[in-house]
Amino acid sequence: DLHQLVEQLPDALKEVFDLHYYHDLPQAEIAQLLGVDVRTVKRKWRAARLALQSKWQLWQAENQESFK
């Protein structure tokens, strides 16, 4: 499930994803909490989403084959 895939992310990406997705914090607030620029948060958020999308597609492909 999504939580397991999130746990596989590198810590820096996982932290931003967790704060934005699970805690619904705006990117500006995350930047302030982490002491980084908002652009850094946006970059990490995008990287986390892309990594999760890739992991999800791989998971679907692997599980689809097991049902054949």
Summarize the structure.
The chain has 68 residues and is mainly α.
Number of discrete helical segments? 4
Could you name the ranges where pLDDT drops below 50 across 5 or more consecutive residues?
none
> Secondary-structure element order, as H and E?
HHHH
> Could you say which overall geometry the principal axes of the C-alpha atoms support?
elongated
Percent helix: over 70%
Rg, rounded, reads 14 Å
CATH superfamily: Winged helix-like DNA-binding domain superfamily/Winged helix DNA-binding domain
Strand content: under 5%
Please give the number of β-strands. 0
Task: Please name the CATH topology.
Answer: Arc Repressor Mutant, subunit A
Mean pLDDT: 92
Major sheet: size, sense and barrel closure? none
CATH architectural grouping: Orthogonal Bundle
What structural class do you assign from the helix and strand content? mainly alpha
**Class in CATH?**
Mainly Alpha
- Give the end-to-end Cα distance, rounded to a whole number of Å: 21 Å
Number of domains: 1
Give the key terms:
68 residues; mainly alpha; 81% helix; 0% strand; elongated
Layout of secondary structure:
Layout: H1 2-7, H2 11-22, H3 27-34, H4 38-66
Helix pairs in contact: 2-4, 3-4
Question: Could you please describe the fold and organization of this structure?
Answer:
- The chain has a single domain, classed as Winged helix-like DNA-binding domain superfamily/Winged helix DNA-binding domain (Arc Repressor Mutant, subunit A).
- The chain has 4 helices and no strands.
- The protein has helices at 2-7, 11-22, 27-34, 38-66.
- The longest helix has 29 residues, at 38-66.
- The two termini are 21 Å apart.
- The mean pLDDT is 92.
